[in-house]
Amino acid sequence: MTVRVLLVDDQALFREALSVLLSVADGVEVVGEAGNGAEALARSAELHPDVVLMDLRMPVLDGIAATRRLRVEQPDVQVLALTTFDDDAEVFAALRAGAVGYLLKDVSSARLVEAVHAAARGESVLQPSVAAKVVARFASLPDEPAAPQPLVTPLSERELAVVRLLAQGRSNREIAGELFLAEGTVKNHVTNVLTKLDARDRTQAALRARALGLL
């Protein structure tokens, strides 16, 4: 499946460079560009992309407000924040607005392409530093009155290793390299982890694993 991508950034030169980078990636098609959040809403309604790569600090309408509106007006479109900043306020504001992932602009081209495909599948994609913030924020919350229910089927040793790396924001490719496994094998382990933890995505899996004391 080819993932249709809309690029949203107020810097034309960055959009141009990003377009060139993604145009040579397998399974990715850049269908349009926008220079601010308001343009992003209009272009998305016109072009129906699968994924919007959204900068956050832009004129007219910022990326967080645009993401919030886009998720209401066009819920089938996945938003992947791509920005220079990873301060806590913007990270959590973007995720609360409905962004499926959060990456910094220093991300490698291979990781970005992988993230675009993951976002199109509705999977959570977080920069390692951002994933650490999410888990740390969860850990700082007051204890819930009742302990989480134990797993019906415990994670295997390999699945525990996978979920611990997953909680650090590692991609399937990076986990494969760390554990000396094929990427397809890691994908199978991640699927099993999500099933056993009853999690809809990687972020929820990391949070549930944290609550269960698996990290």
How would you characterize this protein structure?
It is a single chain. The protein is an alpha/beta fold and 215 residues long. The protein folds into two domains: 3-126, Response regulator (Rossmann fold); 145-211, Winged helix-like DNA-binding domain superfamily/Winged helix DNA-binding domain (Arc Repressor Mutant, subunit A, Orthogonal Bundle). Helix content is 52%, strand content 13%. The chain is built from ten helices and six strands, in the order E-H-E-H-E-H-E-H-E-H-E-H-H-H-H-H. It has a six-stranded parallel beta sheet with strand order 2-1-3-4-5-6, with helices on both faces. Strand 4 (78-83), helix 4 (88-97) and strand 5 form a beta-alpha-beta unit. The two termini are 35 Å apart.
Strand content: 5-15%
Order of helices and strands: EHEHEHEHEHEHHHHH
* Strand segment tally: 6
Distance between the termini: 35 Å
Shape: globular
Rg measurement, Å: 17 Å
The largest pleated sheet is described as: 6 strands, parallel
The CATH architecture of the largest domain:
3-Layer(aba) Sandwich
- Helix/strand-derived class? alpha/beta
Average pLDDT rating: 87
Number of helical stretches of at least 4 residues: 10
Briefly characterize the structure.
The protein has helices at residues 12-23, 37-47, 63-73, 88-97, 109-120, 128-140, 157-166, 172-179, 183-197, 202-211; strands at 3-8, 28-34, 51-54, 78-83, 101-104, 125-126. With 215 residues, the protein is α/β, with parallel strands linked by helices.
